[in-house]
Amino acid sequence: MKIDEELHPLSTPRSPAPSGENNARRSKRDAPLPPRQPWLHELSIVVDGNATVLSDRSGDVRPGTSQGLYVDDRRILGTLRLEVAGETPAFVAERASGAGADYAAAARGLGNPGPDPTVEVLRSRRLLGSGARTLTEHVAITSRAAQTVHAPVRLVVAGDGLDIGAVKSGHLSGPATAATATADGLVLADDWHRTTVALEGLPAGTTVAVRPGDDGSVALETTLVVEPGRTASVCLRVTTERLQASAFDADPGSDALAWDDVRVTAQDHRLARTVEHGLDDLRHLVLRDPLSPEHVFAAAGTPWYLTLFGRDSIWTARMLLPFGTALAEGTLHTLARRQGRTHDPVTGEAPGKIPHELRRHVHRDTTTGMTLPQVYYGTVDATALWVCLLAEACDWGLPPERARILLPALRSAVAWLTGDGQPDDDGLLKYLDTSGTGLANQGWKDSGDSIRWRDGTVADAPIALVEAQAYAVEALRAAARLHRSLGDDGTEADAAGAAATALEGRLRERFWVDTDAGHHLAIALDGAGRAVDGLGSNMGHVLGTGALTPAEAAAVAATVTGPELLDDFGVRTFGTGNGGFNPIGYHTGSIWTHDTAITAIGLSREGFGAEASEVARTLLASAEAFSYRWPELYSGLALAGAPTPYPASCRPQAWSAASAVALLTVALRPRPDAATRTLRLSPVRPAPYGALRVEGLRFCGGRVDLAVSADGDVEVLSAPDDVTVVTDRGDGILQEGRGS
Of 109, 340, 416, 710, which sits 20 to 30 A from 166 (CA to CA)? Predict the structure, then answer.
């Protein structure tokens, strides 16, 4: 903080600096700041498929910021500002979820004099449409004043067509998009989109004035006349159409998912709200494969990752399986169509490899120099996770005849997992970016400084992540089951099973370390084959994969729920005793919602119900703090009893929103077996959220409704006639139910 010495005469006077030093200081002060990634935590965000709006909490989109209406990763509008009676309405409240948001404000310059506002302004924002994207902005003015109110309304818009990658790199302004005035609005056009902006729904006799500004913006002006106790309104409609195709023109797919009948209630009221908001956001993150629009998948998150990401989309679909297999099936096919076929060091492609991400345009980070092609394969774990998703979708009821279509992709994936794509022959999955412009780390912790030793030193590549080995063990055993269940040659099943056993042995032999934190799993092996002994959340992903003995699972469970890793609001990515720990570091101490959820699921699968419940409750505490709309990540460093935002975090993020359903998995511990049409449940006792009712579960294509008491007893409310629900009561007795 700078102190003015004239106002604070007791401060110690400073000797004048030499003139050269003064000039240097002045030059440094006047130099432009380098571009910085913009922060998002205070923004209001709505999303629907390939379109998203970022605004301030009043609803305004302000120029020179990251805010805007984005379609297909291009900023269509960089300005959208509302004025009533010559000023911005005074902000009162904001609510955003999925594709809609509402903003309450007051026009304090209108109506009765005095402290109470008498003219209300309600702004309702909705994203609509499919190929042509539509944003509607409904402005309703309600008067409680004693006299008729004349309310001049002014909506100012402008576009710049900036690519989302440029905005993420901190380049927040571009030349204004050319605008052509029309009778009731304007038309914006750049190389990729044509956008029509118009005022609609005006009262009879109301006129619209279109006034271009000197800065490239255009103002649409009208006046609403509002009688006492009445409401007058106007609607701004913004419709965007593509002028040319990008590499991945995916349209919204929210109408493809049957979640309307899902209802969750619990004694812990936070659970119902978390699930409701999570499913709403997830529905509006869904996109259609442009090569096969009947197949849908979840985009990773808005605004930076509003497209297909292998790992993110797979984990999201896995967590959502209790509510149907449609998202899983679409994700499997969309990724299989783009499965690697050749070797390419620039894209990271290899035969059988599942891609990391698809972009509409080449993604460039001007700060780091990272340049990712439109189809990029820099991921070590998506291939194994794809196999796991296929197996679990079959367990939940994906029909065998539809699963068999994916057998060629399964064979290719297994071939990559068992050696075709690895940099050496030691039998471990590793990654090494040889392009110089890709991701240095290619697990889910993909920042450059995420893989660290206990002393904080960054590990050298190539890297073999502990969770990647565990995913592969689970995937290879799943592949063996799939080959047998889908009627394939048993030789392939035997080979996959043997490969899983061998990899499990390597994990056991090479990844356990002893540090001041105890006997625990290492994060990874480094380029020299040494176990990187940092204490991290990676070990939580090993739970439930079948790669651990009961004693090993108990050791991991104790460590991951110990004081170094478990915070009041989730599992830390990096333990507090590590060198370089930072509670708001991207992967060096922050909390990721999905990371914590996966750990809770793993604990539950391993039979550690009390520990799983404890972790699940930390997630509920964080959900409440973020108004039941989890960000991608956050800091557990508490402020007034709530977690601290990570300012650049995407929100909503698909696997964060899907973590709401993971909370149900933790409580119910479902084990679906579509082959016998049996759904087995082993509820945690006592129930982590109190008495629980879940309606709208999907198993073998039918609906299952359940009620679970606070003691963990299950009542089957409804189920298909040919489905059996079996409940482990915890006393060795199994109870069957078929609905009441």
Answer: 340
Which letter does DSSP use for residue 305 in this model? B
Q: How far apart (Å, rounded) are the C-alpha atoms in residues 659 and 652? A: 12
pTM for the whole thing? Answer: 0.93
Where is 387: in which H helix or E strand? Answer: helix 382-396
Q: Longest C-alpha distance within the chain, in Å?
A: 90
Tokens 């929210």 appear where? 254
Which residues face 222 on adjacent strands? 153
| pLDDT reported for residue 731 | 52
Phi, psi angles (nearest 5°) of residue 622: -70, -35
Rounded to whole angstroms, how far apart are CA atoms 691 and 573?
31
Task: Report which of residues 132 and 53 the model is more confident about.
Answer: 53
CA distance 620 to 467: 25
Angle in degrees, CA 221, 223, 225, rounded to 5:
165
Question: How many residues would you count in the chain?
Answer: 740
CA–CA separation, 310 and 379 (whole Å): 8
CA distance 126 to 76: 16
Neighbours of 408 (CB within 10 A): 11
Contact of 718 with 703, CB cutoff 8 Å = yes
Q: How far apart are CA 535 and CA 521, in angstroms?
A: 8
Q: How confident is the model at residue 395 (pLDDT cuts 50, 70, 90)?
A: very high
In the block, tokens 């499965």 appear at 339
Provide the percentage of residues in the chain whose pLDDT is more than 70: 94
**Selection from 122, 136, 117 nearest residue 46 by Cα:** 136
Would you call 637 helix, strand, or coil by DSSP? strand
Give yes or no for a contact between 599 and 560, defined as CB atoms under 8 angstroms apart: yes
Q: Which amino acid would we find at residue 583?
A: P
In angstroms, rounded to a whole number, what is the distance separating the alpha carbons of residues 733 and 253? 43
Instruction: Give the H or E element holding residue 297.
Output: strand 292-298
Closest alpha carbon to 691 in 264, 263, 266, 262: 266
Token digits of residue 579 = 């060198």
Q: What is the mean pLDDT of residues 582-594?
A: 97
- Alpha helix ranges (H) inside 201-322: 269-283, 310-319
CA gap 344, 30 in Å, rounded: 45
Q: Write out the two tokens for 66.
A: 């990251």
Per-residue pLDDT band at 10 (split at 50, 70, 90):
very low
The DSSP symbol for 420 reads: I
Residue 459 three-state SS: coil
pLDDT band at 492 (very low <50, low <70, confident <90, very high): very high
- Burial string for 551-588 (b: 16+ CB within 10 Å, else e) reads ebbebbbebbbeebbbbebbbbbbbeebebbbbbbbbb
Helix (H, G, I), strand (E, B) or coil at 388: helix
State both tokens at 637: 């460093």
Taking a C-beta distance cutoff of 8 angstroms, is the pair 565, 490 a contact? no
Three-state SS at 481: helix
Amino acid found at 643: P
DSSP-derived secondary structure for 555-610: HHHHHHTSTTTEETTEEBSB-TTSTT--TTSTTTT-EEHHHHHHHHHHHHHTT-HH
